[in-house]
Input
Amino acid sequence: MTFNHFKQFSGLCFLALVNTSMAAGQLTYSSGTPMTVSGRIEASEGSDLSRLRVQVLPIGSQNVVYETNPNHFGSFEVGTSASGTYELRFVNLQGTVVHSQSLHFPYGQTLVVKIGQAASPGAELTPISLSRLQHKVPKQAVREYIAAHEASKRGERNKAILHLQKAIEIDPAYFEAHNNLGVQWMREGKAAEALHAFERAIAIDASDPLAETNLSVALLTLGRFAEAEEAARAGLRGDGLSARARLYLALSLLEQNKARKEALFHLSKASSQLEPARKLLEQLEREGQK
Output
């Protein structure tokens, strides 16, 4: 697969990757301009809400059409390109559905979801560095982070970037701010700036797979496929259930014309969760039959 060939999929699995939720700071995708719903999780004290995945699926289907993560305050934003009733799932890192309910789009108010003990920290969670656990983010930096989240929800990306930069100025070791700044730069189409932000997040906490997986997107955008492969593998090592990491790893392998069987394996694993992975897998299989 050449890069020009790969760009045929930009609308499915590349440009759409920059359609993100500021609540998560995680790159996700959508099949069109989504109607969005803002939500908030209520859970027991000490729950690590940012480790959950929030998924939107058509009723009766296993195909995820939108996926994101809540932030550490429990806020999230989901969307879909078509009105109707969908299933809203909350999944932990082991792949267990800890909560499921129906949700009709459009939905005109903030959705409040009560989960209880399901998101409590435990052995299934990916590791966080000791220095990050011990680091206390100044309240002023947190306020800037929240302001960035609110600006992003309003579609004011430039303001979101300014708030995140201010949060980082106050607290240069603020992992979430660096990671989410990278997401916002990707939304602006500035992959080089995003790359720098993700690299700074990884320097703060190299054990977190989220920034590594996001880094692979920036590297793919810049045509640095070998490095994108390395970053995607790091993300997959940290979160073996990450469909995104599998998709980006497959793309990086295909762009290097190497390990086609491995790429197909990762696409097959990701295809049940990510529509772009399924469509790319189908095309590659059709090409293989010719």
In short: Confidence is low (pLDDT under 50) at residues 1-24, 26-34, 117-125. Residues 151 and 160 are 5 Å apart (CA to CA).
